[in-house]
Amino acid sequence: MTVAPEQRPAPVTGIARAQVPALIVGIIGVAVAGFGFVTNAPEFYRAWLPAYLFWFLIAAGSIAVMCLQYITGGEWGVLIRRPLGAASRTIPLFILFAIPLVLGLEHIYVWADKAVVAHDVLLQKKQLYLNATGWIIRGLVFFALWTLWVWRIRVLSLDFAKTRSPFTDLSRRRWSASGLLMIVLTLSLASVDWVMSLEPKWYSTMFGISFTVESGLSAFAFVTLFLVLLSSTPAMRDILKPSHFRDLGNLMLAFTMLWAYTNFSQFLLIWYGNIKEETPYYLKRMHGVWGWMATALILFHFFLPFFLLLMRPIKDHPKTIGVVTVIILFMRFVDVYWLVGPAHYATIPPTFWITIFAFLGIGGLWLAAFIWQLKGQTIIPIHETWVEEAIREGALTRNA
Amino acid sequence: MATKDTTPVHELRPTTQELRIPERFIPTPTIEPGHNFATITDHISTIVLRRKTPFGWFFGLLISLGLVGLLTFTISFLIGKGVGIFGINHPVGWGMDIINFVWWIGIGHAGTLISAILLLLRQQWRTSINRFAEAMTLFAVASAGLYPALHTGRPWYDWWMFPYPNTMGLWPQFRSPLMWDVFAVSTYATVSALFWYVGLIPDLATLRDRATKLWVKRIYGAFALGWRGSAKHWYRYEYAYLLLAGLSTPLVLSVHTIVSFDFAVAQLPGWHATFFPPYFVAGAVFAGFAMVLTLAIPARKFFKLEDFITTKHLENMGKVMLATGLIVAYAYAMEWFYGLYSGNVFEIYMLKNRALGPYKHMYAALWICNGLAPQLMWFKKCRTSPFWLFITAMFVNVGMWLERFVIIPASLHRDFLVSSWGMYHGTKWDWSMFIGSIGLFFALLFLFVRFLPMISIFEMRTLVPEAHVHAHAEGEEH
User: Where are the domains of chain A?
Assistant: First the structure.
C-alpha cells in the first residue's frame, strides 16, 4: 500500500492493445459512412454533425477540466490528469474531422444556402456574422487557441516532470487559469456557430453556457469510464480506491445537476416568455419522436444519474459507477442528436445509419489517437505534487 | 498574546530562508502558528466577555442606530403617504425598492456559500470566516425583506402572499415568480438562521462556562440548550450540521435563480435573457464575497484577529471574487454578442440605450466597477494586500448596485413604444430608505460582534496541531 509509485513494476494496463482495434473500427466506420456520402452527400453532411459534436465535446471538455484541475490542484483530479491531457491533445484532430462540415456547409446551415438567404431579410442582415468565410475563420481561430493552450500546458508538464520547479508549476497554473477563461469564451462562440445557428433566427443566451457544461460532463463521464476500465487491471487494481470514484461521482453529479439547471432554466424562460421568435425551437423538439427523446432526456439524462449518483455505494464501486458513466455518455449522444436533428428533420431520418457509422468512425479514430497520446507514460502522474496524497485513500476519507 | 509561554515548535523547524524556497511558494496558514486550544478560546471569547467595550464600537453603533431612526421615519412616512413618495412611475414601476432588495439578497449569498458549500467541499479555510459571513447573510436578508414587504403599498396585507385556506377561496398567483420569491426567500432566511444558530450552540456553551456574572451565564446557558459537550451531543451536532449544509446548498442557487426569474420571464429586452439564472447567482456570490471582505478587513484589524483571519483567507476570497467577477463580465459581454447576433431591433436598441442613453454614465461605471476593478485580483500582490482587496471590494459593492440599476430602470424606461418612454430618478425617500437599511444592517452587525463570538471557537480549535495528534497516530497505523 505504501510502496512508492517509482518502485512499482511498470504498469501493464493493456490500453495499448486496444489501439489497433479502435483504429480498425474507426476506418470501417468512416468507410461505411462514406458510402452515404457517395449515395446522398447532403444527408451525409447533416448526419456527420451530431457524431462530430459528441466526440468533440469530450475532447474540448477535457481541456476545460484539465485547466480546472491545474488551477485548483484538488486531489480529485490527480489520477485523471493523464487521460485528460491525452484527450485534450486530440483536439487538432477535430480540424480533420470537420472537413465534411466545411464541404457541406450550405446543406447543414440554412444561412449558408444562398437560395434561402435571397428571400429572407433577417438572414441577409445576419450575413454580417453568419457567413461561410467567417464561420471557417472563426473555427480556425478556435482550434488555434485550443491547440496553443494544450501545447503550452503539455510542454510545461513535461518540464515539470524533469525539474519539479515551482516556477514551472506556477506558469502552468497561469496558463490553466487563462485557459479556462479562453475555453469558456470560445466554446460559447463555437456553440453558436456550430449548433445554435442551425436555426439561425433562434437565439438563447444560455446556449453557450449549457454547451460548456455539456462538454465538462462528457469529459468527466469519459475519464471516469476510462478509470473504471483500468480498475480491474493488475497495474491499477491496488491504486484505484472507492474514494477516487466517489470524488469523480460527486463531480458528475454536480455537472448532471448543472446540465439540468441550465436546460430547465432555458426552457422555463422561453415557455414563460412565449415569444414567437423563441418558442418554435421547443415546439419542434416537444412533438413526435423528438418529444419522446426530450422525455428520455429528462428521465435518463437527469433523474436516473442524479438518483444513482446520490448513493454512495454506487459511486464507490467501479462496476456500478461504470454503468452510470455509460448511461451518461449514451444520453449525451441522445442530447446532441436532439439539439441538432430537429433543425433538419421532422422525425429521425432513414439516413440515421450514417450518423451511427460516423459516430463509430470518428469514435474509433479518436480513441486510437487518445491511446496513442496516452502510451509510453505512466497513467499516474508520479512526479506531480499531491500524487501521494491522492493515492493514499486515507487522505481522502479523513475529511469525508 | 498568550503565545509566549507555549513551546514555539515552528521555530525549531528550518526557516524558509534556510530551505531556500522562494517566498511566493510558501503556503500561507489558515491559522498563524503558536496557537493552542486555550489561546483560541481566550482570544475569541474575551472580545465578548472580558475586554472593555471599545469606544469605537459605541460610536459605530450610535451612527448605525441613527440611520435606523431614519429608516423608521421613512417607513412611517411611507405607510402614511403610500408608495407615491418613491420615484416609481409609468413606465418604471420598479425602482430602488427592487434594486435594493436584489442588492441585499445578493450580498446575503456569501454566508451560506461559505458555510455550506465550502463545508461539503472540505475547504478548511472557511472555518474562521463562516460565522461572521452567516451573520452577515441573515442581516442582509433582513434588510432585503423590508423592501418587497413595504413596496406592496399596504404592508398590513402582506400575509395575503402566503397560501392559506380561507373562506373567500382566494389564492396567491402561483404562476408568478414574485410568489416563488416569497417561498424562496423565506425558506432561505429560515434555513440560514437555523444553520447559524446550530453552529453557535457549542460556542454559546463555552461562553456560558466562561462567563463570570450569573445573569450572563443564565442568558448564554438558555441559548446553549443544555449543551454539555458529550460524545453523543457532538455526534448529533455533526449530523445535524451536515444535514443543514446539504439543505442550504441548493438554496444558495435557488434564491437568486428565482430572483432572476422576476425579470427574465418578462418579454422586455434587457430582462428576457435565458442566461439570467446563472448570471444572477454568480453576481450574488460576487457581491457577497465583496461584502464579507468589506467587513472582515476592518474587523480583523479592529479586534486584532489577524492570527485567525489570515492572508490565506483574504487571498482565497479574492480568488472567488475574481472567478465570479469573470462570470459576471462574461454575462455583460455576451449580452452584447447575443443582442447583436439576434438582429432584433428592440434588443439592439436596448444595448445602444444602455451605452449611450440617459443612464450611460451608470453603465460605464458598472463596467469599471465589475468588469475592470476585479481584474486586480489576478495579481498575487493585490490578492494578499488588505488595502487593495478592500478597494476592489468597495468597487464591487457599488458595481453590483449599479448592475441592478442598469437592469431594472434602464431597461424599463424605454420599451417597445416610443410613446410610453419615461425616466426614473430615486427620490430622497428612496435614498433615505436605502441608507436606513444600511444602518439596520450595520446596527445588527455591531450587536453581533459584541454579544456573540464572531469566529467559531470550537471549529478554530480543530485547526491547531493539538487537534491532529489523534489523527496522526491513526494515520501511522495504516
Answer: 22-375
pLDDT tens, residue by residue, A158-201:
888 888 788 888 899 999 999 999 999 999 999 999 999 999 99
Task: State which amino acid sits at residue A177.
Answer: A
- CA–CA separation, B408 and B259 (whole Å): 12
DSSP class per residue in B45-91: HHHHHTSPPPHHHHHHHHHHHHHHHHHHHHHHHHHHH-GGGSS--SS
- Quickly list H helices, B273-385: 276-302, 311-342, 345-356, 360-366, 380-383
pLDDT tens digits for range B398-445: 999 999 999 999 999 998 999 999 999 999 999 999 999 999 999 999
Radius of gyration in angstroms for the set of CA atoms belonging to chain A, rounded to a whole number: 22
Separation of alpha carbons B235 and B228, rounded Å: 12
Nearest in space to B307 (alpha carbons), one of B4, B29, B15: B29
Q: Is the peptide bond before B91 cis (omega within 30 degrees of 0)?
A: yes
pTM for this entry: 0.90
Tens digit of each residue's pLDDT (9 = 90 or more) over A82-101? 899 999 999 999 999 999 99
Chain A residues touching chain B at CB-CB below 8 Å: 1-2, 122, 125-126, 129, 166-167, 170, 177, 181, 184-185, 188-189, 192, 203-209, 261-262, 265-266, 268-270, 272-275, 277, 394, 398-400
Q: Rounded to whole angstroms, how far apart are CA atoms B462 and B468?
A: 8
Q: Do B343 and A185 touch (CB under 8 A)?
A: no
**DSSP code at position A298:** I
